[in-house]
Write a structure and sequence with these properties.
The chain is 45% helix and 19% strand. Helix 7 crosses helix 8 and helix 8 crosses helix 9. The chain is elongated, with a radius of gyration of 22 Å. It is built from 10 helices and 10 strands.
């Protein structure tokens, strides 16, 4: 079913339990899983942020966090990575709750053999892929390929919760395409759609490190970017202007396309709602302190 090695992160503070997992997996030598063990949640989150993890085996009871909070933090850090939670003998109900919250499966420690472990891992990958395909089509803007408004509202809330838990700042950039209605009227809806696609491509190019880019309205786009402690912020206007600047005669267009900007910074020390963060960015865009970016 799966030909390449599946990079599996084991987050488990007990070395004996981690070793037992490795030995259990070795009972199925043809299983394509490569285990990497870390002994704490903080180390696990750092590994997940690298983007080099395909699957997580997560002990719910760690020194830094216990119970469902452990799963919630891990899932918010890497929602695209399937998670199987590991519970003790007395925590079956906790495992079921984790599955209801989004985990792909739960396993009771010392209660499974190699084939059971491998089957659970394979099924977790397949179920997560199917869910991702379904949610992806539901959350995807068909014109630009970016996340749509519904997807932004769901994922944006996850990013805010992650910022709260980690103390990392977050920036939300709001971009409105100016004059789209005139483009549609003078050059047709096809050219208007092309203008929106051009802006979407420029956003994707400018914000390669962004965690979330979405089209949230007819002519409105947003980008959310997680920072780190002491993060100074980015020069978003310069990034975008560099991306949309014509690079060849073929890039020239029979109209002037401009984008008006607004920027709002989320400080975890002063939490507020996603709707408020978006309103602040939109208000700054209306006051236009950064000026329009020519596309």
């Amino acid at each position: 079913m799966i030909n390449s090695s599946i990079r599996t992160l084991v987050i488990e503070d007990n070395p004996a339990d981690a070793r037992a997992l490795s030995e259990t997996l070795a009972e199925v030598p043809e299983a394509p899983f490569e285990l990497e063990w870390v002994d704490g949640l903080g180390k696990g989150l750092q590994k997940l942020e690298s983007g080099l993890v395909d699957l997580v085996l997560l002990d719910l009871c760690l020194p830094e966090s216990r119970g469902l909070a452990t799963f919630a933090i891990t899932h918010e850090c890497a929602p695209a990575v399937p998670i199987i939670v590991l519970t003790g003998l007395d925590d079956r109900e906790l495992g079921l709750k984790a599955v209801r919250d989004g985990a792909q499966d739960y396993l009771v420690k010392w209660q499974f053999e190699g084939p059971t472990l491998v089957r659970s891992m394979q099924h977790a990958l397949v179920r997560h892929r199917i869910q991702g395909d379904t949610e992806g089509s539901f959350w995807k803007d068909p014109l630009t390929g970016l996340c749509n408004r519904q997807g932004f509202l769901v994922l944006g809330e996850q990013f805010l919760r992650f910022a709260d838990k980690t103390g990392r700042p977050l920036a939300l950039v709001c971009a409105d395409v100016d004059g789209l209605e005139k483009i549609n009227q003078k050059f047709g809806l096809k050219e208007g759609d092309a203008a929106l696609q051009r802006v979407a491509g420029a956003l994707s190019e400018a914000f390669k490190q962004s965690n979330l880019i979405a089209r949230v309205g007819g002519d409105e786009f947003v980008s959310m970017c997680l920072g780190s402690s002491g993060w100074p912020g980015w020069d978003f206007k310069t990034l975008f202007e560099q991306a949309v600047r014509p690079h060849s005669p073929e890039d020239r267009r029979p109209y002037s396309l401009t984008v008006t900007w607004g920027l709002s910074i989320y400080d975890p020390a002063k939490p507020h709602a996603l709707a408020d963060l978006l309103k602040r960015a939109e208000a700054q865009g209306r006051s236009n302190p950064m000026g329009p970016a020519a596309a």
